[in-house]
Amino acid sequence: MIDRRLVDNFDWGILLVAVALSLIGVLTIYSATRPVLDAVQKTFFMRQLYWIALSLIIFFIVVSIDYRWFMKFANVIFLLGIILLVIVLVIGRKGMGAQRWIPLGFLSFQPSEFFKIFFIIAISRYLSFIKPEEGLGFKDLVKIIVFFLAVPVMLILKQPDLGTALILFFIFIAMILAAGIRKKIILTVVIVALVALPFAGKVMWDGLKDYQKMRIIAFIDPQADTQGVGYHINQSKITVGSGGFLGKGYMQGTQGPYRFLPENHTDFIFSIFAEEWGFAGSLVLFAMYLFIIWRGFDTAGKARDMEGCLLVLGVTFMFSLYFFINIGMTLGMVPVVGVPLPLMSYGGTALLSNFLALSMIENVRMRRFALYY
Amino acid sequence: MEKRITIALYIVMLISAVLIFRLWHLQILKGNEYKNIDEHNRLRVLSILPPRGIIYDRDNTPLVKNIPSFDISVVKEDLPKDPETLSALAALLGIKQDRISAMLDTKPVKPFEPLTLKENVAFEEVARVEARKIDFPGLQVHVVGGREYIYGHSASHVLGYLGSLTARQMRMPEYSGIPPESVIGQYGIEKVYDRELRGVAGKKVIEVDAMGRIIKVVRIQRPIKGRDIRLTIDVDLQVEAEKSLRGKVGAVVALATETGEVLALASSPTFDPNLFVRGIRAKEWKKLVRDPRKPMLNRAFQSQYPPGSTFKIITSIAALEEGLISGNTSYYCNGSLYFGRVFRCWKEAGHGNVRLHKALVESCDVYFYEVAKGLDIDILAQYSFSYGLGRPTGIELEGEARGIVPTSGWKRDTRKEKWYTGETLNTVIGQGYLSATPLQMARVMATVVNGGHLYKPYLVMQPESDVKPEGRVRIKQKNIRLIKKALSGVVKEKHGTGRLADSEIVSIGGKTGTTQVVGGMTKEKELPVKFRDHAWFIAFAPADIPRIAVAVFVEHGGHGSTDAAPIAKKIIESYYKQEFKSDTKGDS
Questions:
Q1: How many contacts (CB atoms, under 8 Å) link A and B?
Q2: Would you say the C-alpha torsion B294, B297, B302, B306 has a positive or negative sign?
């Protein structure tokens, strides 16, 4: 069933680094949530391990299916995604002020996590279908926005999940630019954006929830309210900074277990890692993430067709965006927007979605040699 | 397409570079700064208060005791706030339930910080609370350092008291490095020797989590106990002195004649230093401060009074040494003397022919008026100064009064007037501008009888080798004998004014003094207390080789002979009974 040559072309590098990163994640979650006064270790790390196992299984299943098969059903997949987004709004479980989870018995998952991949598949398919020879025109742009972007972004904003909506938007921009767009349009968009910014900014600011506004204020001036919202940013910087060059050592970090840093095993897992492993460890971690990102772009360049190329570019953009925004957030360079660190942050759906994204890269890479096929 | 992928890669590298630069900035450049903040986050330094040095009397009898005192507090986050628990807690602590609720509603500085519900709890109550603690999560008993003054009101003016560090003291260099929750000496020996007594606080570094819960103890630095102090005070003598002053307003000072050791220093009325240890209640403080008899005032040296006839000792010495008189010089007393105006003798009928011996024994004023006519006030002042009057003795405690020794210069400076010889007549009998403290008068007594060595009185035991007289006053041995004999006569002789000090146990010498508060010859008993005369008696014993000098002063006490002399006798007898006891003990 599976071609020998496919196995030969399997890129172990991506998988090994990804598994290594997720295991480092488990170790860091373990340290961040280790008990201090209560005698029992919290089970976050165990659950994360189960999710890694599940993710690997799904990774191999998805890799074994030719990506062109997904492309064939791109529209169905996209519609399925939309339906899930509607369902979550209807029966979703609320958590932390937003309705993002669909309960599935013993676990629950966030459809918006998977939707990003469905979205990338659909856009890739559509862009390669229209094959803009001289770049995308104005009409094409409007069509794509209306067909693919507007509805999901609105549904996700309704949850509300600003972070995911923004990432969807950024992925969209990146993919349009990658596919090629007429210079005239870029110029127009930039000018219109510059002119509209003050008005749009006002509208957007008013549209933000209070907690979102607070995050932005805190980001601009963390010292303004060191006990309130600024607390998070400050504590993250303290956590990272106190690591120094070599770090405090594994299981020696204090900011997490003593609960000075909230969200320490989810969005702020990198701070805990940087506290325990220092600048040196963080550089190694960076190298691993950059390896995956580089492998993604490399694969995109080698893809046998435009569909594959755009698909890989889309997921690589997504992966990079998550990585950069999350690290920027923990280092106090980006407002706290609730974006997890790919592969390492605690959270099953996000982990699965990341492995799914990587499986797309692997999928395209394995099947890059059209000649043999 | 390839070109655009390359651009994307460049963008990724650029962003990575920015992030790594930021990481370097946080971890390497500002790493130490953040490490400090991080430690500040989770490390708390608690101080361990050191045990305070003990104060002993001269025979090593402890006068104070460090006693643990207990506070009951609650971590309100841990306490269930249902009405049943609260009413049970109210019953247990004996506090009204609405007061407990009110206290729980006041916000403590930090979460999980214990909130004190009741201070200074008796041990039995602590035991009761400990037994039922399990029913009240968050309830804690804290041990706090406390101090008990074993003899209560006794020697309180000497020992002083403790109190919390005041805001002003916190800024003073001599109190730097003291934990702000410390209690320190605020009066008396406790204050003056605070540096020695207080010791050095230890430290306990603990690690806490974000909610202030203690995770572990990182480091303990043990406190160093304060140094003990041995006083020169003899507590039995002190108690005896206070007993004899009971109900009166006044002071008693007993000095060892050969060293300047203060054997007893009593001031009446007195106060209970135990009230101050854990912060005195406003009501009690007001009571102390508003008491017209001023219990906080140490009358032994913080206030000054005309020394009255006790000063005749100095006048006699000055006149003898200056060659104005000899033991045989005689004047006639008919009850008064005219010198610009009439100067009266206390004895209206007069003393007849009076020589120095009789003048001292019967305290004839006219004799000294006659002496005064030829005695320059500034010469008299020189003698007074040399015997330690008109300047602080230098005893360790604070607030010492200097007394007044008038001179012609002094009068010119303060009153813008020249000195009149008539004023010298008043001065020689210890009236007029002259004033002295009981401590100064006790020292005068000691100096006269020890052969003229002026010692600085002191309260904290010193090695004998360190005790040296400040100087030697001008007095010939011959004159010492003359004065001592006369002072013995004061007590022994039939007409002596100090007959009531005569003892069967030990030979006592002394001089009475009665200081007029208002002029006139009204009968004392008919006057309101505040206009009655002050009574003095300064004494020494035994007569042959004196070892103890005593000054007794009773404010508005009436007469030196009737009111002060018996007190001096009691104290000296008590001293000798003890000496006798310890001597026989030593022999057996």
A1: 116
A2: positive
A242, B211: Cβ pair inside 8 Å?
A: no
Contact flag A243-B37 (C-beta cutoff 8 Å): no
Q: Is B16 on the interface with A (CB under 8 A)?
A: yes
Number of domains forming the structure of chain A:
1
What integer pLDDT is reported at residue B491 of this predicted model? Answer: 93
Task: Mark whether B540 and B582 lie in a shared domain.
Answer: yes
Contact B5 A301 (CB under 8 A): yes
Helix (H, G, I), strand (E, B), or coil: what is residue B14?
Answer: helix
Give the ipTM of the model, two decimals please: 0.91
Whether the CB of A130 is below 8 Å from some CB of chain B: the reply is: no
Total structural domains within chain B: 3
Q: Is residue B548 part of a domain?
A: yes
B213 near A CB under 8 A: yes
- Which residue is closest to A240 within chain B, CA to CA? B27
A333 and B19 in contact by Cβ < 8 A? yes
Which of A245, A257, A309 lies closest to B28 in CB terms? A245
Residue with tokens 């794509």: A144
Q: CB of B41 within 8 Å of any CB in chain A?
A: yes
User: Do B209 and A37 lie within an 8 Å CB cutoff?
Assistant: yes
**Domain identity same for B402 and B496:** yes
In this prediction, residue B136 has a pLDDT band, given cuts at 50, 70 and 90, of: confident
Interatomic CA distance for residues B346 and B365, integer angstroms:
7
In a domain, B531, yes or no: yes
Closest CA to A35 of A232, A238, A277, A251: A251
Q: What is the DSSP letter of B28?
A: I
Asked whether the beta carbons of B532 and B524 are under 8 A apart, the reply is yes
CATH at B72: 3.30.1390
B408-441: b or e for each residue (b if 16 or more CB lie within 10 Å)? bebbeeeeeeebeebbbbbbbbbbbbbbbbbbbb
Digit-coded pLDDT (tens) for A33-45: 888 766 577 888 9
Rounded Cα gap, residues B544 and B451, in angstroms: 12
Tell me whether A259 touches chain B (CB under 8 Å). Answer: yes
Please tell me the distance from the alpha carbon of residue B164 to that of residue A271, in angstroms, as a whole number: 44
Its domain, for residue A249, covers 4-372
Contact A174 B28 (CB under 8 A): no
